[in-house]
Amino acid sequence: MADLLVEQPQEITISKTFPTKPKLKSKPKTPLKTPESKYWSSFKSHQISNLISSIPSIDFSPISPHHFAAANSASLTLFSSRTLSPASTISFSDVVTSCSFRCDGSLIAASDLSGLIRVFDVKTRTPLRRLRSHARPVRFVKYPLLDKLHLVSGGDDSVVKYWDVAGESVVLDLYGHRDYVRCGDCSPTDGEMFVTGSYDHTAKLWDVRVDSKESVIEVNHGNPVEDVIFLPSGGMVATAGGNSVKIWDLIGGGKMVYSMESHNKTVTSICVGKVGKESGEEALQYRIFSVALDGYMKVFDYAKMKVTHSMRFPAPLMSIGFSLDCMTRVIGSSNGIIFAGRRKAKEDAGESKVGNFWALGNVEEPRALRPTYFRYFHRSQGEKPNEGDHLIMRQKKVKFAEHDKLLKKFRHKEALVSVLGGKNTENVVAVMEELVARRKLLKCVVNLDDEELGLLLGFLHKHSTMPRHSGLLTGLTRKVLEMRAEDIRASDALKGHIRNLKRSVEEEIRIQHSLQEIQGVISPLLRIAGRR
């Protein structure tokens, strides 16, 4: 029976090994991009610099392909939103201050400093109407979103006018403001309601059906109002003035909901745009875009009440527009440059490829490859897989460095000396952390000869004060000085390394004391600023 109980030899398996990597990874110098930052970075930048002077107004056509118009000097230039190139130009006798497309995109209205408002046909550039009633320069003109027959305008005579475009006559004169009327917007839900902003610090909501010709709601922004817009729901408005953008609840009687003060200089223009695709959940995510004289564009999520993205431009910014298809963003500056951005769309790429074949007639689409076709088995290696194909990825061969091979053979001291001879700090720290895990680091330090000890002290002198490695290297430095004190006293070369190490530690201590002094000065100032 005992002869049958023969012990079988156990099979020894070696676990899979991986290259050593530092456990304490350094933090990236730049913060990681959020999904929204990646979205705005996907807009390819393009500068339009052949304009004459400042661009005070930009407006997009509400119909596809959403071309846009820019007012500059005594002209109104129409641009293609796909090529971002000028399509046509309309000349004026004075400086153009504002422009607005009609809801069907067939007409455009523009105002100038002479107090004249002109209406043009977009395709032929034919002047159709001349509206003159303002005694001073007209600063804004706006077509209602749900009305093709009327216009709203305001100017330096402090009067808001409601026009009958077909009859070239004024329907209503509204005298509520006490200073220049600089901006206005029409309600997206009611064609007979609009809001205006003035340098008297107020924004007023008007309803043309009210017999008293007085404003329905009035809000005080606290600074001269440079721009005002309706939010998509129609129940809230946003005003811009000073260095702040404020959101007001009209349904709640004009109550301020939030004040965004992220700009350093005067906010000159704001608009609303959608973030995401043309359909789906992302299409409901609206943002407020603001530009200011500090050269920054801010993207504000008014659902979460926070700034989600910021971009810097090399000039003071005067106006901004965003297309309804979420594909084009246009910003006008004070020096005549338009900073445009457009996202690459799949349909655009398809049009660019197929567009050259339109003149050749119909082109047959290539037949899809099937396993029954001969060409299916002669595909090249660059063939892209289909949606239903099962992919088998080839495993990449892991390459080991010299110190990894030595660690694999348990030659710890040689691995440490090998990595100290290189110039990669991260590899040295990774090997030290691995030796700490194996409880062999101090034993390696004891067995180093004078030349190898000099390499270790030189490394500690250069990197022991670095914040991301100081936790490990400072403790190792103390242990090296305790364990190899006699060897250091006996060697002049090692004494030189210690003197250098002492100087670097003293310099680091001096820097830390200076930073603590600066922190003591700044902390009270931050507390005072926080109270405001």
Count of discrete alpha- or pi-helical segments spanning 4 or more residues: 10
Strand order of the largest sheet: 1-28-27-26
β-strand number: 28
- Return the average pLDDT rounded to an integer: 83
- Radius of gyration from the CA trace? 35 Å
- What characteristic shape results from the CA principal axes? elongated
Q: Give the N-terminus to C-terminus distance in angstroms.
A: 92 Å
Structural class: alpha+beta
Fraction of helical residues: 10-25%
Largest sheet: 4 strands, antiparallel
Q: What share of residues are in beta strands? A: 25-35%
List unreliable stretches of 5+ residues. Answer: 1-14, 279-283, 347-363
Attribute tags:
single chain, about 525 residues, alpha+beta, four-stranded antiparallel beta sheet, 28 strands, about 25% helix, elongated, disordered N terminus, WD40_PAC1, U3 small nucleolar RNA-associated protein 15 C-terminal domain-containing protein, rRNA processing, U3_snoRNA-assocProt_15_C, WD40_repeat_dom_sf
Task: Outline the structure in words.
InterPro entries: U3_snoRNA-assocProt_15_C (IPR018983), WD40/YVTN_repeat-like_dom_sf (IPR015943), WD40_PAC1 (IPR020472), WD40_repeat_dom_sf (IPR036322), WD40_rpt (IPR001680). Residues 384-525 form the U3 small nucleolar RNA-associated protein 15 C-terminal domain. Keywords: Nucleus, Repeat, rRNA processing, WD repeat. The protein has 532 residues and is an alpha+beta fold. 24% of the residues lie in helices and 30% in strands. It has helices at residues 35-41, 346-354, 402-408, 412-420, 425-438, 441-446, 450-463, 470-483, 485-490, 492-531; strands at residues 44-48, 57-60, 68-72, 75-79, 86-91, 96-101, 107-112, 116-121, 127-132, 138-142, 150-155, 160-164, 169-174, 181-186, 193-198, 202-207, 217-220, 227-230, 236-241, 244-249, 255-260, 267-275, 285-292, 296-301, 306-312, 317-322, 328-333, 338-342. It has a four-stranded antiparallel β-sheet with strand order 1-28-27-26, with no helix packed on it. The radius of gyration is 35 Å and the shape is elongated. Residues 1-14, 279-283 and 347-363 have low confidence and may be disordered.
